[in-house]
Amino acid sequence: MSWWTRIFGGQPAQQSKREPPQLPSLPRDAAAYAGMLDTAFSAATDAAVRKISAACADLPQKATGLDIGVHVDQDGEGYVNVMLHVNGPDPYVLEKAIAPHREIFKSTHQPPHGLPLFDPHDVNIDVYEAIAAGVERWITALWPQISGPAVPVCVFLADDFSDRPPLLVQGGRGT
Fold it and tell me: What is the distance between the alpha carbons of residues 140 and 134, in angstroms, rounded to a whole number?
């Protein structure tokens, strides 16, 4: 008689063998990574259009611009968040007005935004440049679905991770 049976009676429960989640594979090259980014961003397009449109509708009169910030992790592992930022006097108050709509994309390593996480030394890709270019393609493609605000709108890569200049998406007055 086993110790389990003596103490608890019966047989111990069998441990279920769950498969670990399938993580996306590492990109072979910059073009493969760009394709992964495009797929992840495309999956988030409808939600992003809703959030950006709602933020534009809630934009305070004092706003002088709307920026789309691309925030990447410092280690270059592939995490990316895309957020809206309002320019103008008293940024705290302006940002508070669009707070429910600020985050338009947040990467994970799970579907639907399944992006690979990797050691940047294991791949020959400029991760920051690839992410910035991917977000610019995505925003440029979805922007015609937005009834834009009457302020300039730019896409920028936060924290000086690239020399890429901000992309002017809209010049103001809803153009």
Answer: 10
Q: Which residues of the chain have pLDDT under 70?
A: 1-26, 75-77, 109-114, 120, 160-162, 171-175
Q: pLDDT tens-digit profile of 111-126?
A: 556 677 777 677 777 8
Give all strands (DSSP E) within the chain, no chain letters. 65-72, 80-87, 103-106, 152-157, 167-171
Alpha-carbon distance of 1 to 10, in angstroms, equals 10
DSSP for 63-100?
--EEEEEEEE-TT-SS-EEEEEEEESSSHHHHHHHTGG
Closest CA to 36 of 130, 124, 129: 130
> pLDDT by residue (tens digit) across 98-111?
999 999 998 876 65
Name residue 67's beta-bridge partners. 85, 154
The amino acid at residue 135 is V
Contact 128, 108 (CB under 8 A): no
